[in-house]
Amino acid sequence: MMVLLELFLTFSRISLIAIGGANAAIPEIRHAVVDIHQWMNSDTFTHLFAVAQSAPGPNVLIASIIGWHVAGISGLLVATIAMVLPASVLAFGIGRVISHFTHRREYKLVQDAVVPVAIGLIIASGIELSLYSAFDVLTWGMVLGTLVFVYFTEANPMWALLVCAIGGVVAYQAGVL
């Protein structure tokens, strides 16, 4: 029962700082789950994050999968609710208040200021994950190939994900990874 309370408090706190979505809070989630609570090691966290990202659905799946890993179905439910509820209530409340100010210039300035913050948090998340991942020539090739593909084409980025997933499976089966 205590672990469920810890899951709830951990993900409730993280949900309030997840400007830009759950992916923006990945470094904090990893720190809480791996370093503070020691519910798993960095490798397990990275693998669960990869599973959450490859599954269709919202980015909050990372909290759900961690909750399931830590405490089964109860943990899944508690972590998901904790990740969604506080931020949703706060966003609803703020939305109600600022809806009266959307015509003001200051509103647009604040809105424009939040976008680079969210982008920076998401980039920091990618860097944080890369610090705890095994990066070799093949992995860097996949990362750079994906960046080039996404930047220079208008194709759906899911194609890059599919090609990298297949490449990873083939490399693993061949003993390269």
Walk me through the structure.
The protein is mostly helical. It has a domain at 2-107. The chain is built from 7 helices and no strands. The protein has helices at 2-17, 26-36, 42-54, 61-98, 105-131, 137-152, 157-173. Helix 1 (2-17) crosses helix 4 (61-98) and helix 3 crosses helix 4 (61-98). The longest helix is centred in the middle third of the chain and has 38 residues, at 61-98. It is globular and about 60 Å long. It starts with a helix and ends with a helix.
Instruction: Give average pLDDT, whole number.
Output: 89
> Helix segment count?
7
Number of separate strands? 0
**Radius of gyration (Å):** 18 Å
Distance between the terminal alpha carbons, to the nearest Å? 39 Å
**Can you write the helix and strand succession as a string?**
HHHHHHH
GO molecular function: chromate transmembrane transporter activity
Main location: membrane
Keywords: Cell membrane, Membrane, Transmembrane, Transmembrane helix
Membrane topology: Multi-pass membrane protein
